[in-house]
Amino acid sequence: TLNARTLGSLGRLEELGANAESHGIDIIAVQEHRFYHLDNILKYHQVGSYQLVTSSASKNTVNSTVGGIGFLLSSKASDTLLSIESISPRIMVLEIDGNPKTTLVCVYSPHNSSVADEIENFYTTLRSTIEQVPLHNFLVIAGDLNARLGPDETKFTFNSKTNRNGEMLKDFLEEFNLYTSNNSFMKPKGRLWTFESPLGDRAQIDYLIFRKKWRNSVKDSRSYSSFSSVGSDHRIVSATVKLSLRSSKKTKPHPIKMIDWEEVLSNPDMSKQFTIEVYNKFQSLSTSEIDAENIEEVYSSLIKSTEEVALATLPKGRVGARANLLIPQMSSKPETI
């Protein structure tokens, strides 16, 4: 996750893409890109082999463009994309295919000095969004929360105390059984801070958030300065994740596929006997259970008769053997047994 401050300046978007490629990063949650496109809910910007999908920035009281969130996706990530949705100007949801599926939520919280209603509305919308994410999905919430978590709230932090936004974040984490990965590993102070003000003051306000059930899958997390050429006052935050994926359960083969059809086809006597028994079975049904005017019902009954006789009388073989049903020739009546 990276608060880019702006990507509208010449070359900044290209620099972001080049840095992502050089570091092998497939997905970056981006805040404050400042691209304004109010008529389009989502806009796609090509950046070399990457694309940036953005939700529009907005205009402030002096008509300056502010905010805007999005996802930078590599071609690999784009190929696995299932859906992407703008929930609000501050929340965006991306889902990618996999086992399990991964849901990423890009967030950009109002500043700590914002009015209380604004921050409360943000968390109300965020809560509603997270409630819609299936519990078995691998969930990542990434972004600039403008929240400082102090030592009383989390183990490894750059901040000396918790601010108002930090209290809101703490309650949200507890409610959904979440944790911030970049507060969970012992790091030097230089790898904890994520933002530097024009006066040189530093703070940790950007986070990667995961469900606690996946804690053992997150192997490392920290902030670093490798994206400083983008020109932001924030640093990128990343996590190293290792998932132990289960293979999908294989469906059991249809019982008819267990028949050794190769043997049946190579044995004329067996084939003839099978045809006779299927005919007799079908004839017994046709006089009592079948509506002769309904061709679909007649055909279904023929298939059912064939399968029942095959399973009762024919030899079983290996799974995957050729399974061509021997539909008996009905044009002439064979000898009845």
From TrEMBL:
Domain Endonuclease/exonuclease/phosphatase: 7-234
InterPro entries attached to this UniProt entry: Endo/exonu/phosph_ase_sf, Endo/exonuclease/phosphatase, Swc5/CFDP1/2
GO terms, molecular function: catalytic activity
Chain ranges passing through the membrane: none
Protein name from the UniProt record: Craniofacial development protein 2-like
Protein's organism: Octopus sinensis (East Asian common octopus)
